[in-house]
Amino acid sequence: MIENEGDPARLPTPDVEPASRWLPSLVWLIPLLAALIGLGLVVKSVLDQGPTVTVSFHSGDGLEPGKTKVKYKDVDIGLVRAIRLAPDLSKVLVTIDMSKEARRFTAADTRFWVVRPRVGASGVSGLSTLLSGAYIGVDAGKAGEQREEFVGLEQVPQVTGDQKGRQYTLHGDSLGSIDIGSPVFYRRIQVGQVIGYSLDKEGGGVTMTVFVNAPYESFVSQSTRWWHASGIDVRLDSNGFKLNTQSLAALVVGGISFETIYNGPGSEKPAANGASFQLAPDLVSAMREPDGEPITSVFYFDQSLRGLSPGAPVDFRGIVLGEVRSVGVEYDPVKKSFRMPVTVNLYPGRLGKRFQQAIADERDHNVGPQVLERMVSRGLRAQLRTGNLLTSQLYIALDFFPKAPAAKLNLAQYPLEVPTVPNSLDELQDQIASIAKKLDQVPFADIGNNLNQTLKSANLLFKQLDAQVVPEMRGTLSAAKQTFGAAEQVLQKDSPVQSDLREALQQLTQTLQSLNALSDYLERHPESLLRGKKGDQK
């Protein structure tokens, strides 16, 4: 029997375990939520982060980290994060954080530049940066290769990658007034601009790059001629006074013009992108046929070259065959005197297509000097002539002088020495000087004395004639006067001779009238010569 079986207070208490708590406390929900939000922001930042590029510039003028933006067509696509100097201190390295949408701006041919207020040939640009500050412009590249480091442009490019048109290369002797942004004209309409220039490696000329906008590039072919359209072209010729210019902008900033000429079938085919052309100094030079290789020659003159300057024409019967390169002076130890060498460039191709064809048929690169040698042997000489009486400008004329002393051209000499002759003015001066010298030798004093003596002798002779011959001449004149008086009496109207003459003339007139009547009757009645008149037969 169990004790206290009926007493509930004495019953044993069972062991009960407390329930486990599996939910976190509400206090931990807030930091957990913050961690999740931060993780989301990190993931979003990583997903939205674009590429980072480094661009080098010569100067960091106007650029500020965290403020300077990168824009493409005025749309923000990046921000400058840091600016530092290069290890060699030669340039500034700008680190740019690009946006997610700007991944294609990491192509290898992408271009970066700083946009600041600029005044150039194409006008004023970047005025908006006066208030907002400078920013970095970018032009998207098309290359498949990607890169993170770029070299920035110091000048704003005139042509962007999305602009339609074609580029061409021009080679000229001088830059003139051309600058980046100078206009390109076609029939006085601006169709493009100059986008770059550089000096040739040899230093003998300038290479320019021009861009012609679409659709005007279709007017550029391999037969297109290009020339400087800068400034004013003033000409005074036989047709009068001419003033030619392209536009007011060309007067200030210069310009280039082009025109396509027809050279047969296929000549109007558009030129390829990057084609090369020669740039002429003016319209006349551009429209002239290609000159070909020049022949460098030298002319030696023994007279003053005042008025002859480099660039003066070398003329052959009105056709300009070349121009003067340099004018100098040289001592001749043989003649113990000075002579004046003039170096010129001659272009045989300007003598016409037939002459060029004759040279081509020879198939000899040395045929030009050989032709010049034959012309010299036939009397070709160089002569100084006055081109303008007002300015006393001289030019060199080439012509044939058959009476000139024989000369031979030395083909082994460079430059070729072409013989010369004095000009007609110098010859006239020499002749006048010779005549003056001869006149100085004439004894005018002795001639004057002899003339005086001769005049005295003549005066004495006239006095003797007056004393001896004059009385006889007076008698002869009196006899002649009497003869003329008798003739006058005979020829008077009432003189007997005149009356007899008038009667004789009247009788002669009547006789002629009778003869006329007889001839008329015989003409009407020729049978009367045999039968007689009808009245006589009765």
Report on this model:
The protein has 538 residues and is an alpha+beta fold. Helix content is 29%, strand content 30%. It has 11 helices and 26 strands. The protein has helices at residues 29-48, 129-132, 248-253, 283-287, 353-362, 367-377, 424-441, 444-490, 496-524, 528-531, 534-537; strands at residues 49-57, 69-72, 75-85, 92-99, 111-115, 118-120, 123-125, 135-139, 149-151, 165-172, 183-186, 189-199, 206-213, 224-228, 233-237, 240-244, 256-260, 276-280, 295-301, 313-316, 319-327, 330-332, 337-346, 380-388, 393-400, 416-418. Strands 19, 20, 21, 22, 23, 24, 25 and 26 form an 8-stranded mixed beta sheet that branches. A 7-stranded mixed beta sheet has the order 5-8-2-3-4-1-9. It starts with 28 loop residues before the first helix and ends with a helix.
